[in-house]
Amino acid sequence: MSSLNLSPEAVSELLFSQTGLALISLLLTLFCYFVAKRLYRLHRVWWLAPIVLAPVVITLLVFNLDIPLPTYFEYTHWLMAMLAPATIAFALPIYRERKLIRQYPLTIALGVIAGLLLGMISSWLLVKFVPLPVELSKSLLVRSVSTPFAMEATSAFGGVPELTAMMVLITGIIGMLVCEPLFKLMHIRTSLGKGVALGASAHGAGAAKASELGQQEGVIASLTMIFIGIAMVLGAPVFAVIFS
């Protein structure tokens, strides 16, 4: 069997071809995520959280390496596609915490309704009073639900799934950063109140932050996030007509 013998020029051409850059993009994305996750476990500061650090580093690398966005998404779009089947896993915490749901049905229901409506109304007001590109404004309306649900629901509004995912990410980061000062300002002290607030306003990032505050906070935030996401997907055709 003959060995593969590539010249430095051939290796360089392969690495900087579209396929090579797409593969590098995928590897860089995974590497940045796992490094950020490791750093955050060692040092619990907000700017090392994977949802904050990884996107910033990846964006800087993509621009500095002059990687075209279509090339970047050639392989990394599979990471986004994995979010859709991941929604099936949300059935597990609902089943596991069914006793908690039966214990606080009214609080969770009110949190879901308030979070869903206030999130959409605030997005609608922003779109109405701030001039934004059409694609961005349509993608913004479902920013207050978790990424898998938002990407599924945004098509009813005519939004772009990738833009919606970015808006969801920004919303979650902001919610994660401002939650504790707001809890102090609004005198929200109960684990139930904190969990519902974080799950309703900051979805996945909020649920992660709630888990840091306490076990019950994390469970309540996860349940609220899941129910809001389900409500958004089911009601998206109706909401699209109302908020169009």
UniProtKB/TrEMBL annotation:
Q: Where in the cell is it found?
A: Membrane
Annotated membrane topology? Multi-pass membrane protein
Protein keywords: Membrane, Transmembrane, Transmembrane helix
Q: What is its main location?
A: membrane
Q: Which InterPro entries match?
A: CidB/LrgB (IPR007300)
At the top level of its lineage, which domain of life is listed?
A: Bacteria
**TM segments?**
15-36, 45-63, 75-95, 107-127, 163-183, 219-243
Q: What PANTHER family does its record include?
A: INNER MEMBRANE PROTEIN, PUTATIVE SEROTONIN TRANSPORTER
Q: What is this protein called?
A: LrgB family protein
